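sry for the spam today, last one i promise. C-alpha cells for design, 549 residues
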C-alpha cells in the first residue's frame, strides 16, 4: 500500500533540528539542520518558479548544491535530471531538452559547455553568484514541508549508458529511492554516526541510489569529492572519517595503481559497495587497505537486483532471488546449470550463459518518453536486464557481461567478463577489457585491451599456465593502451574499443592461427590475412559496431 511507503521528502524534513554535522565539502561543513533549511529555501523558490511535477536539470560537479537540489526537488514534488558534464554540443542540448527541463541549475565552471546551445524555455540558475544568492534570499525562513509529497512522485531522471544509442532517462520515484535507501542502510548496518564518501558522479544513479540515499535514510553524514581522484582518495577518507563508499567501473583499479604506503591500512573505512571491481582486485584491495568490497548487482532501472550473502562462492554475485532466471534470449527457455571444473573453468558456457530475467514483480518505472527502449526491457510481462549471467546448481549467479559483450568463436558462445577475470591475473595488467572483433570468415575473434606493461612472450606463457582459460578464450589480438578509455562514470568505453577494433593508433599484437606467440600487427596483415571475406553489412553485424538483440 502506498500509504505505508515513505518519501524522500519525509527523510529530508526529518533532519530539521538535527544539529550534528551532516555534510562535508572541502573547507565547508553543514549540519543536518542547515541542509534541511537550505533545501526548504530552494524548494520554496522552485514552487514559485514551476508547477508540481516539473523537471529541473542539474549540471554540477559533486558540490553541496547537488544534494541540496535533490532534497529541494523532493520537497517541491519536482524531478531532477542529472546532466552529464562530459557530453558536448548537440548531445548535451539533447539530454536537457529530451527530459523537458524548465530550469537548469549549473555553476560558473560549466557555463562554457552551454555556449551556443539552443535551449528554448530553459531558465538558468548559476550557483555561486550574487544573482543566485539574491534569488534565494527571500526564502531564507522557509521550513521543509513533506506533507504534499507522495511515493509515486517522480524524483530522478538519470541517464543510462548510451553505448548502443542515445542515453535513456530512467525514472525513479520518491518511493523507490526511499525504499532503496532504507534497504541498503539495513543491509549494511548504516548508523547515524557513519560518514558516506561520495566520489562517484552524482549525475549517475550509483552515487545517488547506493551512497546518498542510504545515508539519508539512516541520518548519516556525507562527504563530497568534486570529482573522483585516486591520489586524493585516502586523504579524504581520513580527513572526513569516512566509513563507507561506492564505486563503479575501474575506480578500484585506479586506487590500486597508486603508490603503496606502510600506513595504507590506517583508515576508518568499514566497507565499499559497487560493481565491476573483479575478484582479483577486490582481494588486492582488502589486503592492502583492510577494507572489504561487496560486489552487488542491480540494474540501473531497478528491475532486478542480486544481494551478496555470507557463503557466496568466489566469483559469484549472490544467490538468485524469487523470479530471477537465466534465459536463452532466443528460445526463451531457462539455461542449464553452470558446470565448473576443479580449476574453476566454466565447462558449458555455450549452454549455461544467458540473459538475466526477472519474471516476478519488480520496481522498474520506465524510461522518460522512450517507449521503444521500455518495450525492450518489458517483454512477455518480464523484465529483461540486458546482462549475461550463468547460474550454478546451488542457485548462485555469476556475472558474464552485457548482452553486447557476448562473443561467438568457432560456434561457441563466450562471455567477455569471464575472460577478463582471468586476464586480470597478468602481472603487467593495470586494467583489462575483452571484446569481439569480426573473424574474416564468420563469427568473432577475441580481442583484449591492456593498460600497463606487456611482453608478448611472457603473456603467451601466462595464458598457457591458466588452468581455467578455455581453448577458445585466448585473445587473438592484444591492444596495449597507456590508459584505458572510460566513460564519464569510469566504466570502460567498450563501444569505442569495439568500433576501433585492431585498426587503431595504439600498438596491437596478434597471434596468427596455429601459432603460440604474439607478434606486432602490421598494415600488411590487416590488408592480407585479416581482410574480411564477408560483405560490409555482415562485418558490421559481427562486431565493428555495437550489437543489439
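last one done:
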Amino acid at each position: 500500500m502506498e500509504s505505508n511507503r515513505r518519501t524522500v521528502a519525509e527523510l529530508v524534513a526529518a533532519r530539521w533540528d538535527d544539529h550534528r554535522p551532516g555534510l562535508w565539502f572541502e573547507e565547508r561543513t553543514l549540519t543536518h539542520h542547515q541542509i534541511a533549511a537550505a533545501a526548504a529555501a530552494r524548494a520554496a523558490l522552485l514552487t514559485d518558479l514551476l508547477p508540481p511535477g516539473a523537471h529541473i536539470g542539474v549540471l554540477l560537479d559533486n558540490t553541496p548544491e547537488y544534494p541540496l537540489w535533490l532534497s529541494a526537488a523532493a520537497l517541491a514534488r519536482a524531478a531532477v535530471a542529472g546532466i552529464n558534464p562530459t557530453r558536448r554540443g548537440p548531445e548535451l542540448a539533447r539530454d536537457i531538452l529530451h527530459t523537458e527541463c524548465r530550469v537548469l541549475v549549473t555553476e560558473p565552471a560549466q557555463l562554457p559547455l552551454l555556449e551556443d546551445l539552443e535551449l528554448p524555455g530553459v531558465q538558468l540558475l548559476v550557483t555561486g553568484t550574487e544573482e543566485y544568492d539574491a534569488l534565494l534570499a527571500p526564502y531564507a525562513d522557509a521550513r521543509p514541508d513533506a506533507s504534499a509529497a507522495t511515493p509515486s512522485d517522480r524524483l530522478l531522471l538519470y541517464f543510462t549508458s548510451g553505448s548502443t544509442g542515445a542515453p535513456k532517462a530512467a525514472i525513479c520515484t520518491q518511493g523507490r529511492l526511499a525504499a532503496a535507501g532504507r534497504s541498503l542502510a539495513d543491509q549494511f548496518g548504516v548508523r547515524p554516526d557513519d560518514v558516506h564518501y561520495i566520489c562517484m558522479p552524482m549525475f549517475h544513479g550509483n552515487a545517488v541510489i547506493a551512497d546518498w540515499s542510504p545515508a539519508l535514510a539512516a541520518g548519516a553524514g556525507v562527504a563530497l569529492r568534486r570529482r573522483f581522484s585516486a591520489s586524493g582518495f585516502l586523504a579524504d577518507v581520513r580527513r572526513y572519517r569516512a566509513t563507507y563508499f561506492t564505486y563503479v567501473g575501474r575506480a578500484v583499479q585506479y586506487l590500486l595503481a597508486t603508490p603503496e604506503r606502510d600506513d595504507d591500512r590506517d583508515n576508518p573505512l568499514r566497507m565499499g559497495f559497487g560493481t565491476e571491481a573483479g575478484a582479483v582486485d577486490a582481494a588486492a584491495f582488502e589486503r592492502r587497505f583492510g577494507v572489504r568490497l561487496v560486489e552487488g548487482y542491480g540494474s540501473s532501472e531497478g528491475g532486478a537486483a542480486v544481494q551478496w550473502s555470507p557463503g557466496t562462492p568466489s566469483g559469484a554475485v549472490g544467490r538468485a532471488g524469487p523470479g530471477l532466471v537465466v534465459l536463452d534470449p532466443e528460445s526463451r527457455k531457462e539455461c542449464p546449470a553452470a558446470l565448473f571444473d576443479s580449476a574453476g573453468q566454466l565447462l558449458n558456457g555455450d549452454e549455461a550463459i544467458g540473459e538475466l530475467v526477472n519474471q516476478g514483480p519488480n520496481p522498474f518505472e520506465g524510461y522518460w518518453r522512450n517507449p521503444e527502449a521500455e518495450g525492450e526491457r518489458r517483454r512477455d510481462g518480464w523484465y529483461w536486464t540486458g546482462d549475461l549471467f550463468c547460474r550454478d546448481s546451488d542457485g548462485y549467479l555469476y556475472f558474464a557481461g552485457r548482452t553486447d559483450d557476448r562473443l561467438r568463436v568457432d560456434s561457441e558462445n563466450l562471455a567477455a567478463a569471464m575472460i577478463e577475470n582471468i586476464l586480470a591475473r597478468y602481472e603487467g595488467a593495470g586494467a583489462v577489457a575483452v571484446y569481439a572483433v569480426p573473424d574474416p570468415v564468420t563469427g568473432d575473434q577475441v580481442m583484449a585491451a591492456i593498460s600497463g606493461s606487456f611482453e608478448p612472450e611472457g603473456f603467451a606463457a601466462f595464458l598457457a599456465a591458466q588452468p581455467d582459460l578455455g581453448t577458445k578464450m585466448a585473445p587473438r589480438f592484444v591492444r596495449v593502451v597507456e590508459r584505458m578509455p572510460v566513460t564519464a562514470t569510469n566504466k570502460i568505453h567498450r563501444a569505442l574499443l569495439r568500433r576501433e577494433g585492431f585498426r587503431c593508433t595504439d600498438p596491437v599484437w596478434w597471434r596468427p592461427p596455429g601459432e603460440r606467440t604474439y607478434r606486432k600487427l602490421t598494415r600488411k596483415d590487416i590488408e592480407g590475412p585479416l581482410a574480411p571475406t564477408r560483405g560490409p553489412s555482415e562485418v558490421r553485424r559481427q562486431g565493428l559496431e555495437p550489437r543489439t538483440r
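The first strand starts at residue 21 and ends at 25. ok im logging off now
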